[in-house]
Each structure stands twice: as structure tokens, then as C-alpha cells.
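Changelog-linked ticket: magnesium ion example.
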Amino acid sequence: MPNVGVVGVQWGDEGKGKIIDILSDYADIIVRFQGGANAGHTIVAGGKRVILHLIPSGILREGKCCIIGNGVVLDPEVFVHELSELKALGYIKDDKKLMVSGLAHLIMPYHKKLDMLKESRNTKKIGTTGRGIGPAYEDKASRMGIRVIDLFDKKVLTERVKRNLEFKNFVIKKYYKNEGFQARQIVKTYSEYGKILKKYVTDTTAFLHKSIDQNKTILFEGAQGTYLDIDHGTYPYVTSSNTVSGNMASGSGAPPTSVGYILGICKAYTTRVGEGPFPTELFGEDGELMRKIGDEYGATTGRPRRCGWFDAVIVRRAVKTNGIKGLSLMKMDVLDSFEKIKICVKYKIGAKTYAEPPMSVGDYERVEPVYEEIDGWNTSLRGITKYDELPTNAKKYLKRLEELVEARIDIVSTGPERESTILLKTRLYNLRFAFLNS
Ligand code: GDP
Ligand code: IMO
Ligand code: MG
């Protein structure tokens, strides 16, 4: 049954939020399966710009069900804040629209503090978002974590917080020489969060199973991107979860066989925020121009994003790792004014060339990109909604990328707004979404 999964194929911020918002119109359920409030998914609709960190990007659509799955690390402070903002904007009129898995792990105040302290002490910084993601997943793996469901049993919550603080306070006070936490205060604050969360918390796995039986359409919303994946990314410069499509099932409870079509979200160039290797990074005028035109500043931290040319080596590998059936090529309009556009087709280290990304971070840093150059289109693509209206050179760019990354481009994005999108309907044959029949 072809439900749809969406993943980023670069280093995040590819434009997943925009596409998930569009596809949500044709889905019944939208589920986040990993990451946390390190994500920043932007939607521009009806003249408004909404940035979502935790709540799925389907929330702007009426009559949909948005799920925060078990694989997410949930910061209740961010959740409560985002919830009230969305309610104020009128997007959550019915509370049944939102569900939270009781199995999701909680981000605790000490996770955020440890994330910051670790970064400030570390000479080799990762450049994290400071949202406590790494420390929370560490606790999950070491079986120290506290889950959403634990919020509703004060005895359990108190016991778990105390047990954690014995260790965390030791590290924070003795190693980092910083101020520790009091269990009483955390239990009080988190019990209050629990009261707000309560009506959204449910067995989302069972709900997904029932929905599959009822033939409902599910959209899996990935956060981050393939090269931030803890296994397949540029380790250690990665996030702490599996961002690839393989995690859609474990992070939600829906079976792997329920995902039929995987859509890769991909910028027409490359960006990265935070530290780590980036072979096609541009340091001169071209990079500045991309940052300026593309408004490349982090949606979560406001940090300037590093910019560079399209890297076909990483995208081709991501296509294979994620089982991508189609790509959505984003921000084509940002390249409008470039006379020449470069595409990295392979890597070189010394005299040897490589078609696959290296395994070691040291090799990654030594990589020299081998470029192919094509003529730009030198005209505005902004807002184009039909493939036929694209200039010849833009079509040539798309075609060349398809060849290099060995995947079809099913969607092209020509502006941040919902409407600035080319849906290549005939190619989306595998989707059950209604627009196929329109
Ligand atoms: P996400 O994390 O993958 O959802 O992406 P972000 O929201 O962090 O960053 C993508 C940015 O690009 C946002 O500011 C979007 O509004 C913007 N955007 C998305 N698609 C396009 C496009 O086709 N053209 C332009 N100019 N901006 C776009
Ligand atoms: P979306 O979903 C871009 C990056 C951070 C840092 C690394 C580890 O909006 O695409 P973390 O806080 O996760 O421990 O940071 O991962 N990072 C992202 N970069 N987009 C994101 O999410 C990101 N989430 C984390 O900058 O380099
Ligand atoms: Mg983002």
C-alpha cells in the first residue's frame, strides 16, 4: 500500500516542511518518527510563515491527524509553546488533530544543559542546535531515559528523575563546574507539562495499525537529512538519530511494508549548518550570493548556513540508501542569476577518483570535488508552476541531475510558497494522492 515517506537527502533544511505541507492535503495522517526540536520546518501559506520544530508539518491542514511518534525525543517546553502558537493562529481547533506517543522519550532540562556544556568544552565542536538531542538519545540507548508516559505517574517520575540526577548532577557539578538541578523542581514543572500533554498522549502505534487496516493514507515526515544520520552521515558531525527512511517504521510503529513511495527532498545546491565536512562548500562570492538569495539562515538557531554547489555523489548514495522513488528539487529559483552552475560529479583524493562518499571523516575533509559546468538560465523561475514554462537550461539542469543521481525528479520548487511548485503528476504514478486523478 503506497503510503509516502519524506526524507532529506543532504544535510537538512532541504525544504521538507514545504513539501510535507503540500502532500498533507492528500494524506490522512502525518507522523514524525525521529529527531526533536532540532528540526525547523518552514511553511509559507496564505501569506503566513510558520516554522515547526516538533509538531508535524501537516498541522496547518484541516481534518488531518498529526502524530509525534515514539522515535521522537520530545521537549515538553517546546511542545507547549508550539501548541499555544498554533492555537493562537487557529490551526488547532480540534485537539483530536494531534497525538503524541507515550513511548517517546522526553528531553529533560539536564539534557539541554549537558548539550551546551559539552559543546562549550569540546575543542572539536559538532555545532549542535543545543536542544538536548544527543544527551536524550544517549539516555534512551543506555536505558536511563524518561518517557512521555512516565509523566502521568508521579512516583515513577520522581524516582526516575532522582536516579538520573545522581549521575547528571555529578557530571555537571564536578566535571563541568556548573550548577546542578533539583529533582523537586523538575518533577513539579514536568507534572505541569503532563497536565497539558495528557489529552494528546495515546498508543499511536495501535492507532497507526488501525488506520492501515482502514486504508488511510499516512505521510512519514523525516527531519534532518541523510548526511546527518548517525550511521550513514558524516560521523561524528551528525545528529543522534537515524534520519534515513529505514527508521520510518521503528520510529512510528507502522510496519516497513506500509511505506510504498519514498520522496527525497533535495536542494538544487547544497547547504549545511554546524560543523563537519562539506566537499562542495563555497567560501567566496558565489556562496555569499546563495546565502543571500536563498535566505540561508537556520530555522532553529538563526545561524548562517554554509552554501555550495550540488553534490551528486552524496545525493546518488542517499537515493540508494533511502530507496528513493522520486526527488523533489527545491529552491531552483535561488540559482536564477548564476551564469554558470557547477555540479560535483565525483570526488578526488590525490590522483584517485571516487563515485561513493568516503567512510572516514579525515578522507571526507581531503576530498576535492570534480565539477561539471553547465550554463545557467539567467531568468527568474520564481513562482513557475508548469514544467513547460521552465527555460531550456533549467530543464537541462534537471535532466543532468536525474542522470547523475539515478532518480526521477517528481517535484520542482520555484519559491517558498505552497503555490510555487511544479508537481509532475504523470510521474507520481505510485502515489494514491488525489491530485493524481485530478
Ligand atoms: P526543512 O528543514 O527541510 O523543512 O527546511 P527549512 O524550512 O529549514 O529551510 C528551507 C527554507 O527554504 C525555508 O525558509 C523555506 O521557506 C524555503 N524554501 C522552500 N522551498 C523554496 C523554494 O523553492 N525557493 C525558495 N526561494 N525558498 C524555498
Ligand atoms: P531540519 O529537520 C539542519 C545539525 C546541527 C549539527 C548536527 C547535530 O530542519 O532539516 P543536534 O542538535 O541534532 O545534535 O545537532 O545536526 N542539525 C540540523 N541541520 N537541519 C536540521 O533539521 C538539523 N537538525 C540538526 O546543526 O550540525
Ligand atoms: Mg530546517
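Closing comment: Example verified and attached. Residues 8, 12-18, 40-42, 44, 294-295, 299, 330-331, 333-334, 413-416 surround guanosine-5'-diphosphate (ligand 1) (CB under 6 Å). The CA atoms of residues 138 and 240 lie 8 Å apart.
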